[in-house]
Amino acid sequence: MKDxxxxxxxxxxxxxxxxxxxxxxxxxxxxxxxxxxxxxxxxEGLFEALDVxxxxxxxxxxxxxGITQIYLLAALLSATAEKNPLFAWKxxxxxxxxxxxxxxxxxxxxxxxxxxxxxxxPNTPKDNTAQYTIMEPSTVYGISKQSGERxxxxxxxxxxxxxxxxxxxxxxxxxxxxxxxxxxxAVHIFHEALKSSSYECFLGPDTALPMMYxxxxxxxxxxxxxxxxxxxxIRSSYNLGGISFSPKDLAEEIRKKIPGFKxxxxxxxxxxxxxxxxRSIDDSASRLDWGWKPLYDLKTMTxxxxxxxxxxx
Length: 313
Ligand code: VAH
Prior knowledge:
43% of the residues lie in helices and 15% in strands. The chain is an alpha/beta fold.
């Protein structure tokens, strides 16, 4: 049977780009976008309004379209989740369990669910953080991602569900607006650099974090999902590394494109979140098991961001 994909959370930072990439791979009519409400400007493909915590509503859409794979991206990110902890837990966990249950009941062949470097906490070694190491997340978002990883591993081991996952670093893209993430300073800064050649950063200058340019993250997702099942040895979630940089590093790279760009620093509550996360990630398991290799570095990401944002804005 031909693959039919449902992307849940299609209006988000990753969802926006993943729908496009999946439609390029499977054909537009094979990919259904879904989110809480329909986009103002209807996209080129099919859309279904869906609250992923509504299990009956989800089953109805899966049956209506004959869905074979679900990419579940709907979640509250780190900073937003801290403002609404119990709702964040409900959305992040009930959403995942509803999808895993559908897969257990054989309504689906494959599931993608994103984890995050937010599963690591203040006691985790911060440099070149290993695939297996201390994981004591201190944010609701990180706790939900760590629990989600355990559930994915459980549903694979106990019911044979083909669920696959990546621990995304901070993602930077130009196609969608900055979201409620702690790493989203690295998206917002480009918009402000173009608008006013200055930016007030909510993290301190030396806050190095694991980051990745969105084209690399989308390619990693598709490469993981397209890999032969036998190559996927880790069913919790794979570490995924790209670039590691601080706001100061990024500002210096931006200044090569916008001379005179000024940055000031006013750390807020998101600094406490960032301080619990690694500075860089060891993704050797992804490289070994399914051939992962990032293509963008800080220089080429910055160049590509400006080329595309200038066209868009
Ligand atoms: C966040 N962008 O900041 C997300 C990401 C590693 C961070 O998961 O919450």
